[in-house]
Amino acid sequence: MGREMPLPPHDIMRAVINNRRDRVFGDESIWLCLTCETCSARCPNGCDPARVIDALRELAVSEGVSPSPRNVRAFHQAFLDQIKFSGRLFEVGLVLDYKLRSGDLLKDVANAPAMLVRGKLPVKPARIAGHGDVRRIIEACERERTAGGGELT
Amino acid sequence: MDFQPRITAFVCNWCTYTGADLAGTSRLQMAANVRIIRLPCTGRIDHMFIVKAFERGADGVIVSGCHPADCHYTAGNYHARRRFGVFRELMDFMGIDPRRVTFSWVSASEGVKWKDVVNETVARVAELGPFDAYHELAGDTITGGEPAPDPFEAAGGAETSDPLEAHEVGR
Amino acid sequence: MARIGVFVCHCGENIARTVDCARVVEELKSHPGVVHSEDYKYMCSDPGQALVRKAIEENDLTGVVVCACSPHMHEKTFRGAAAKAGLNPFLCEMANIREHCSWIHEDRGEATDKAIDIGRTIIEKVKHNVPLETIRIPVTKRALVIGGGIAGIQAALDIADGGAEVVLVEKESSIGGHMSQLSETFPTLDCSQCILTPRMVEVLQHPRIKLHSYSELESLEGYIGNFKATIRKKARSVDEDLCNGCGDCQAACPSRKIASEFDAGTGKRSAIYVPFPQAVPNIPVLDRVNCTRFKAKRKGIEKDVCGKCQEACLKGAIDYEQEDSFVTEDVGAVVVATGFQLYSIGRDQPAGLKGYGEYGYGDVPDVIDGMQFERLASASGPTGGEILRPSDGKPPKTVVFVQCVGSRDPEKGIPYCSKICCMYTAKHTMLYKNKMHDGKAIVFYMDIRAGGKGYDEFTRRAIEDDGAQYVRGRVSRIYRDGDVVKVWGFDTLSGEQVVVDADMVVLATAMRPQPGIAELAQKLSISYDEHGFINEAHPKLRPVETNTAGIYIAGACQAPRDIPESVAMASATAAKVLGLFSADELEREPTVALVNEQTCIGCFSCEQVCPYGAIEHVDVCDVEGHICGVVARVNPGICQGCGTCVAVCPSKSVELQGFTDEQIYAEINALGSW
Amino acid sequence: MSLGYYPGCSMHGTSREYDESLKAIAPALGVTMTEIDDWCCCGASSAHAADHLLGVALPARNLALAEAQGHDEVLAPCAACFNRLAGARHAVANEPGMAARVQAVLERPFANSVAVRSVVELLLGLAPTIEEQVAARLEPNQLGELSIAAYYGCLLVRPAEITGFDDSERPSSMESVIAACGARPVDWNMAVECCGGAFSVSRTSSVVRLSRAIIDDARSHGAQAIVVACPLCHSNLDFRQAAMTRRGEEPMPILFITQLVGLALGLPAETLGLGRHFVATEPLLTQLKALAAARAAADAAKAAAAAEKAAARAAASDRPVVAASAAAASDPAPAPPSAGGGDA
User: Largest CB tally within 10 Å, which of B47, C164, C615, D149?
Assistant: First the structure.
């Protein structure tokens, strides 16, 4: 994805070193990272851009900075809410929810039937017994983060 | 101050003695209470030397050599450090206040540090007052030939504490 | 009864300003044992020294104390003066009343009292001084040089030209080392073989150089001036005395498809071979691993197979039964010049290194390393100097050079900079462009480190005159895509990803010490760093010495080095060796430790703490001559006189001459009287 | 040794056939595994991007469950899940303070004692078994003619200190499994490049660009199919392939490694869920069957001829040596460059 990022990983690292929040959060770069880990695997100095970018996204979310491209953030949001609700990811739900948030309603709708035919999309969400437990964990983590307990930056 | 402490310094020939020389050539003024005894290496220092110094009326002692890893003889100062670990235990036992002894590293380029070591030690010992317990120190006063305790007996324990650090001054 | 003479120096005003020298003279005159005491303005001047000599003779003094400057300043001077007057120099000591007194105090009274104290202390010490004789160790004026690369060759020639004998040991069948593999050399682009071969021949013909090729050091015993080296002459399967280097055996050998080490795998050789035509000595070696005959033997086939080389050899020099033999050589000094190896980043990685799978080295035929490029560019190489890529033998139109492969990479490779890569990469681009004018040379670099005479100009030339295209950034991926080698990189200056369709890629791989360097270092009891490079005694002031006296280092065994540096180091070691050999005997300060074998209990605490391994075990026998115990003995040739053994000896059986317990206690006691 | 099974969400949805095929081959290979009761989503690929702690805590919950249910190993077929689980295990073990923080949010005992295994790792260990079974089968192995590109993607091999079981730049474990199945692994270039992962839905354009490069490279290296071990990769390469195939290009079937093993073991395509792919697999399979049959016939003929030769050779005595020297003459191994040059 490097080539699609306005700031490629090494520039992000540089900006972080120079504490250039404006640059780091200035565009959608950090949201375009797929955590494919290639940068971390090949860094001669053992830096771990993938982790740094994760941390930056976390920061961005908690501080509400950084214009994460609407659809990417939407995806993450939809994803987490899914788990929060059922404890597991319910893909149909995810896709629908995501479309509502991101607004590109038509995308993939054509494919959904195909998915159903192939038995790939259970229509009914599987809700695990411990979904409450999961919700609690998610909220606990949110609390810790807002309490600033996290070790980011 | 009226009380002028008498300090005996055991220094190695290559680092601290040369460092003291540098202090001289740089004309660094310092207290005149210190008398230097030159040894090839702190590794040479038998801690009975220190006991003897006190026994002969010194109020304080400075032991100073090369920084770790700088030893002219590659490892002498490490062995010294290790033995002083044992020695500190001994001092309490003999009723010598450990604060009367300064362990320090002064390299050939640290004239200023040497000055500080001297002045701070003199000041510290001056506060402690005269060391008058020396007559209680055991042993024949002429040869000072008490059998030294085997330095390696307690060496194991010594390694955990680092006496040179413990009292280092003039950083 | 001691008869001490005291000499107080004013050092012009330096001492006299704050120290009342007259009073010092008076006070010390009355000190027990002092028979003479005087002062003078400049004691170190000739008239001053004359005073000392005169006093020694007139009062036949048993000791001299010079109250003046630091012993580091003038101890030699005054000991010399004492010696001239017939007094053992070690009975003369200095009391430092300048650096340690007059210069650091203002109060005249205080300073004078202190000066007197210092004088007394030294007087008391001198009373216990004993005459010492300078230690003399015989020196074998013969040097062992390990490694026949350019460093070893230079060291051997310089030492031999200096008049000493040299034993040169080379593990390969020919000397020449890596330099003989190079095509041209930076920054002058003169042909490596042309400047090296004559030196190699010189070595062979030098009356004072004895060459053991295809040999390795088995063990080294002894100490400076007196080493005994055992050398393993590996079974060459060729009688060195009979062989006349005609090469018939090589021509007769049927297995000719063995990858040539000399050509870094780009060329082929036979099983019995001389690595290259100019080899010195020009005697082939039989590679028993690849030889048909030995393969068959290993397969357990009774009958002798092949044997064509033996048939072909008219001198009957081929000896299949030959075994490793050993020779011992007495030498006085050792020069280690074992050089380097290139970091092979292929699939098999040494412990601690991850390698570079993403660069496809070893899998993609057209991804080669610097040494392989040298062979391709070399007139004596497999392509006769034409640059043709390995896969299809076509001339590559676009060549990508990647610097810092393995170097400066603490995570996957090696943290240090290999130093020569920037230069040889620039050289490679020139060699390539000079042979392929329409070719494109692209260099990926992190920084260009071209420090050295004419070095930066050289890299500039590559860029500006020869048009090499330098891209600042690292390469992330190299793979084969049909006919081309795809190179993914990043241009950090333009901030763009770069993808090059190259025909060939040359990796400037890192320099590492030779394999087996650790074992060698242990044999020589010298130290090496975490990468395996030999440690110098002092990084600035003793760069070619090791912490073991009499063993010196030259070239890339100490750190990444280029040819000029290796040669300079080699000549430096030669100077050191010749200096050592300049006298028949080594003179050493007698301030060394001495064991009282009567009282030694043989606990060898001293051995544990001695940094130089100077402690030897000696059997003690009872009256009937039966061994009844073992005691320690200090080898004065090795002891450096730190005195650590003295301090740890539980039975007080070791004394450090010049700093005996007696002397030191005397000093301490002297201080008791203030 | 008790193996817990962590399917992960997509195994019950978009990559159902992965689950089916795994369950199908497990008994055949003598693997018994029990699904972790009440497992939850591991958070991939959003949790870690939103909250580091959550990214560790969710997988940790599953590892804790596995622990409680007496497993000492957990099998996570989904590469993303595997990466998250293994990553969590690593983080809890190595990040200062992490163990405590996780403990605090989990509110259940967690000793971090469970090892995490990927399907590839498991199959690699079983490769000999697979080979035996394939050999033992009577009908000709239909995979004999199949050239396959093994696609690892990111999460299976990176980062090395977490995944560990294979070289992160030049992995070979899948190739070993493919070979064990009797198929031909192709040597290609995109085995560890990223396919676009989680952007399948949110940034399809990128996925198409990245995945196309992968499929093109596989095709150009003669692969007839790509084998994957990751639902994300699969959906990108399979589900999105329509968007990236140009006119005249044969579609490239994308198989899960478990499906390949299943085929090798002779399990019916249906049970392996081969019908669930967007890129149809039938044409390839039928083609293979034909080829395999043909080859079997040819082999039989060859074998007969060879037998005669062998008999003849047995007569002459000094033959083996010639063979040996011939082998020597054609010894291809290039010397390591470092071997050049001469030093003691």
Answer: D149
